[in-house]
Amino acid sequence: MRKTGGLPLSRRVARRVEELKPSGIRRFFDLVVGRDDVISLGVGEPDFPVPWRIREEMIYSLEKGYTSYTSNLGLPELREGIAEYYTRFGVKALPEQVMVTSGVSEGVDIAIRALIEPGDAALIPEPCYVSYKPLVEICGGEAVTIPTAPEFRLTYEMLMQYRDAKAKILVLNYPANPTGVSYSKKELEEIADAVNELDLIVLSDEIYAELTYTGRHVSMAALNGMEDRVVIFNGFSKAFAMTGMRVGYVIAPPDIFAGMLKIHQYCMLCAPITGQIGAIEALRSLDEVERMRAEYMRRRNFVVKRLSEIFEIKKPEGAFYAFPKISSTGMSSEEFAEKLLLEKSVAVVPGNAFGECGEGYVRLAYAVKFEKLKEAMDRIKEFVEEHGEG
Ligand code: PLP
């Protein structure tokens, strides 16, 4: 075997990286690339373009030649705007506590790197967004998953069962990808009681906060005495349909903020300036969010109605995902998703891509045009009818 740097080629990548599993979502995404006949309910990406007035601001900024780095922390006007904006979720943060990141993805990564020492445990309720566990493992930490099926709601009692894990952090995401579960203030207060008893730091991924269909989102950091325990992550990808602009932000207690900033300035320098300029305009465009939320809610109601005719399904309270239980078909999640793609050209993601307890479910992203959604629901119904009981 050819050797490089004294190591065989097969050993050049660090073992902890070699051992990571590739994302189950990507695999299904790759299967549909280049196929026009497929209706993809696979990837969680808004079907709306960036609202026009936000695009216009970005175009003008390029015309004016604003193409440089910004300060590590982000444009001051944006940081001020974010601090002001977050009061709507009950948090009184200072602009100095806001760090602009390259998406929530970067924020979660640098928070985990700033907090986790090799051997430290992180509690991760499952099913959950695919990044959390690998990011903990890359740091040599132990990802302790908490299965939440069939209700998919984390509770005080569930968390307290993990007191022996001596975990340092809890990763919480609500409204949740992939289940659409969100929490009321009362439920959050109960979770917060366990967080206090177990002395945890909460990484609160609130990227779908604006896409809550059951009233106003409440941030975990807004609860009494929690501001010092919670790192908030949010961004512009989902609610403002700005996935490709790569702008997110973090609101964190000072010590954690300082640690994260060190990593951010070495690995990222700053978030892209064009996206940041767009984000300033985005915060003035909440009516656009309202318009998109109303459309997602219409789709949610439709999808839940159609799917509940064939499957057991909980009504999502936020985000743009439905998570029906498909085990009544006798198929595994993977089998269901693969056959559905092959036979009916509809792409969904197997539930086990989000953790073992997602087995028996699939995730459908309803961030596609209504007409396509209707067609997809018809094809799924046909598929289930052709495969027996349902
Ligand atoms: N967090 C959750 C729960 C997500 O679902 C996603 C994207 O699907 C992200 C974070 C990534 O967001 P960003 O585009 O801001 O990096």
Question: What does this protein look like?
Answer:
The chain is an alpha/beta fold and 390 residues long. Helices cover 38% and strands 13% of the residues. It contains 13 helices and 14 strands. The chain has a 7-stranded mixed beta sheet with strand order 4-10-9-8-7-5-6, sandwiched between helices. Strands 11-14-13 form a 3-stranded antiparallel beta sheet. Strands 1-2 form a two-stranded antiparallel ribbon. Helix 3 packs across helix 10 and helix 5 packs across helix 9. It is globular. 49% of the residues are buried. The mean pLDDT is 95. It binds pyridoxal-5'-phosphate.
List keywords for this structure.
single chain; 390 residues; alpha/beta; seven-stranded mixed beta sheet; three-stranded antiparallel beta sheet; 14 strands; 38% helix; 13% strand; globular; binds pyridoxal-5'-phosphate
In short:
With 390 residues, this protein is α/β, with parallel strands linked by helices. It has 13 helices and 14 strands.
The tally of helices reads 13
Relative strand content: 5-15%
The poorly predicted ranges are: none
Rounded to an integer in angstroms, the radius of gyration calculated over CA atoms is 21 Å
Strand order of the largest sheet: 4-10-9-8-7-5-6
Number of strands: 14
The percentage helix is 25-40%
Distinct small molecules: pyridoxal-5'-phosphate
**Class based on secondary structure composition and strand pairing:** alpha/beta
| Principal-axis shape | globular
Instruction: Give the topology string: H per helix, E per strand.
Output: EEHHEHHEHEHEHEHEEEHHHEHEEEH
Taking the sheet with the most strands, its summary is:
7 strands, mixed
Indicate the mean pLDDT.
Answer: 95
Termini Cα gap: 52 Å
